[in-house]
Design a protein that fits this description.
Keywords: Membrane, Transmembrane, Transmembrane helix
Structural class: mainly alpha
Strand content: under 5%
Number of helices: 2
Helix content: over 70%
Order of helices and strands: HH
Shape: rod-shaped
Length: 72
Amino acid sequence: MKTIFTFLILNILSFIAGCFIFYFLLDYFNPPVTEDGHPYMPIENVICSVIAAFVSTILFFIFIRKYIAEKF
């Protein structure tokens, strides 16, 4: 039971951190500025960061599962 909560907490934290990290990276490489210099919220960067964080969370889950399985 403790292992399941560990998986769940680590995956939620990695997903949230991944969303922020990937959004800031995408925001840096693809800045959201209009032609006249006004910033805006690009939904494309948000969606791409969520997808990238989801994929990285799946990979993180696989690695954590293997690590915990080897430890116990």
